[in-house]
Amino acid sequence: MKTQDGQALPVAVLGAGPVGLAAAAHLIERGLAPLVLEAGAAVGANLAAYRHVRLFSPWRYNIDKAARRLLQAQAWKAPAADGLPTAGELLDDYLVPLAGLAAIGANLRLGHRVTAITRLGFDKVRTRGRDGAPFLIRAETAEGPRQYLASAVIDATGTWSHPNPLGADGIAALGEAALAARIDYGMPDVLGAARAHFAGRRVLVVGAGHSAAGTLLALAQLAQVHPGTSIVWATRGSQLARVFGGGAADGLPARGELGMRLKALRDSGALALRQDFRIEEVAEIEGRLRVTGEARDVVAPVIDGIDRIVCATGARPDLALTRELRVRHDPWLESTDALAPLIDPNEHSCGTVRPHGHRELAHPEPGYYAVGAKSYGRAPNFLLATGYEQVRSVAAALAGDLAAADEVQLDLPETGVCNTRLAYQEAPAAAAPCCGVPAAAPASCCA
Fold first, then answer.
1. Per residue in 143-161, is it b (16+ CB within 10 Å) or e — as a string?
2. Strands across the sheet with 34-37, in order?
3. Longest C-alpha distance within the chain, in Å?
4. Cβ(414)–Cβ(251) below 8 Å
5. Taking the model in full, what pTM does it have?
6. Are 67 and 22 in contact (CB under 8 A)?
7. What is the CA radius of gyration of the chain?
8. DSSP-derived secondary structure letter, 91
9. What is the reported pLDDT for 447?
10. Is the per-residue pLDDT at 411 higher than 80?
11. Which of 45-49, 172-176, 253-257, 410-414 has the weakest average pLDDT?
12. Which residues, listed in sequence order, are joined to residue 302 by a DSSP beta bridge?
């Protein structure tokens, strides 16, 4: 697809995180020009928000193959394959050098928050000639709105900036917005920059995933130094097998260890666990927070005396960007229809997701692909290695190499949860105390 003066249009890549920059690398290798639009003031803005977090996937799973080839051509030295980076190290030692390459840096636009994607001259309803029209991307910048044309769009905007609310019904709990200053979403730096917000406080952590686990372990470590710190853990359900994990059976040892340490913390009595607690309302009572759950047997359960809340209930994609495109999402996961059965968290963990590529990621709007964490919609079981294989396949398809695009291969570490659900019960008695070492606190499966 070309402009009126005969210039080839770029492929727009939305988001300059690990998957977005990997997409740019694959496009470059395929001879296609990327145009990377990043909302943040620097690449990897979402990673920077939790740079203190040590990931449970080692470097071998966190570096894209095309990106590695481009970097090594410039004498970049890869970190040790088995090392476990923090999010900050992934950013500083990999993404920043990658974005600094001339082929990528020249096509990178920072401070460009995409607000809408459409077809030039076509609204959602008009059909004739639609597929031949370029995409029109509108972005907000410090200088005002800007518009760009593209031959295709690879949407790697992720989900991190759209966290799920406290409310168990999928919408904000009553009082949540008004008390937002006392609620942290995701993984706050409990032991670092945000320490003063948590030390000596009574903290409620809501969620039953790896982000919640990492925060709970960090708070337990903080409580050793600040004894006045107390922890309440609330989960919406009663099954903790998935977050406790597969122990030694997990293909990612750090992930297995995380679950073992969390179970040890629970068993130690160092936190108060409230299961089947589905939040309806948050209110301030005499300077502290009261959290009320759905009524059971007429009586509504209450957690009183909370100073601060950490909401670690996952995230969701921003679907407003594509309102004028012809997209089709799974009704509950908000991934594409074809991908949903492969990633349904009710059936799959990170290591049991089958390989998938451009065909599963395609929408009725030809040339638009959501990749990375956004492609999974609300499913939490995403790993970077999955996103890297997705963009390899998509870039090959855009280049017309369907044979390579269809030859999808993916080697993911098993969680050990599906086939060894009770492995955490077999932890050796001599294991180190759960709080004896700094918490390896991954941000869900997506690292």
1. eeeeebbbbbbbbbbbbbb
2. 108-109, 34-37, 11-14, 152-155, 368-370
3. 72
4. yes
5. 0.88
6. yes
7. 22
8. I
9. 36
10. no
11. 410-414
12. 292
Looking up tokens 């396949």, which residue turns up? 393
pLDDT tens sequence across 294-350: 998 888 999 999 999 999 999 999 999 999 999 999 999 999 989 998 888 777 655
Confidence label for 404 from pLDDT (cuts 50, 70 and 90) = very high
Residue 28 has a CB neighbour count (10 Å cut-off) of 20
163 - beta bridge partners? 315
- Single-letter residue type at 158: G
Q: At what angle do helices 18-29 and 65-72 cross, to 10 degrees?
A: 70
- Minimal CA–CA distance to 415: which of 376, 383, 377, 378? 383
208/227 Cα distance (integer angstroms) = 25
3-state SS string over 235-259?
Answer: CCCCCCHHHHCCHHHCCCHHHHHHH
Among residues 284, 336, 343, the alpha carbon closest in space to that of 309 is found at 284
Containing 117, the helix (H) or strand (E) segment is strand 113-119
Both structure tokens of 346? 């009710």
**Packed helices 65-72 and 384-398: angle between N→C axes, nearest 10 degrees:** 80
Q: Of 373, 396, 352, which Cα lies nearest the Cα of 443?
A: 373
| Total number of residues shown for the chain | 447
CA distance 275 to 223: 22
Buried b vs exposed e over 68-105: b needs ≥16 C-beta within 10 Å? bebbeeeebeebeeeebbbbbbbbbbbbeebbebeebe
Q: 351 falls in which pLDDT band (50, 70, 90)?
A: low
Cα 220 from Cα 151, distance rounded (Å) = 51
Quote the CA–CA distance of 68 and 94 in Å, as a whole number: 9
**Three-class SS state of 49:** helix
For residue 4, what are the CA distances in angstroms to 31, 132, 134, 138, 267? 21, 13, 11, 20, 68
